[in-house]
Amino acid sequence: MTIRVVVADDQTLVRGGFRMIIDARDDLEVVGEAADGRHAVRLVRQLRPDVVLMDVRMPVMDGIDATREIIASGSTTRVLVVTTFDLDEHVLTALRAGASGFLLKDIRPVELADAIRVVARGDALLAPSVTRRMLDRFASTGPAQLPTPAALSELSARELEVLALIGQALSNAEIARHLSLSEATVKSHVSAVLRKLGLRDRVQAAVAAYDHRIVRPRDL
User: Fold this and answer.
1) In what residue span(s) does the Response regulatory domain sit (predicted)?
2) Which pLDDT tens digit goes with each residue over 139-169?
3) Which of 108, 159, 167, 173 has its CA 20 to 30 A from that of 197?
């Protein structure tokens, strides 16, 4: 099945470059381009793509507000934020708004294609090095309240352990080794954590783990 992508960036050359990379893959297709966030929101509503590559800084409506609006609408479209700098404070806000990860604009073509596939299948794109920097920045910006403490109380002790390890950017395989569990069992625990906390994916789970002091920057 072909993964349908919308590219949102105010630079024509950037959009064209992403289109060339994406359309060169048999399983990926660009179905629309937007030069601003408002247009991106309209395209998501009209085309229902699987993934949006969302630039942060755009006119009319920036990528953060566009991401927030797309997620709030209940759309199943996944948002991959694209930025020039990995420490851009706006990226952190976009992740909290519901983006499934972020990419740097200097990403290699094969990495871009792989990232789109990862997000399209429902996983989140969050490397350990990115998580460390992200949590360090959260330490200075203060927590946002994603799930409520009451929701956290619904987690079992094992699920809390899994949440803490998600917050440290461990994969399911790494969590399985750490806890001496099967990957299938870990996957079940991860699904339970996301469901009970009302979270979209592992990115929001990592944010929640910090926001509620389950994991701190010094733990990484």
Assistant:
1) 4-120
2) 555 545 455 557 788 899 999 999 999 887 7
3) 173
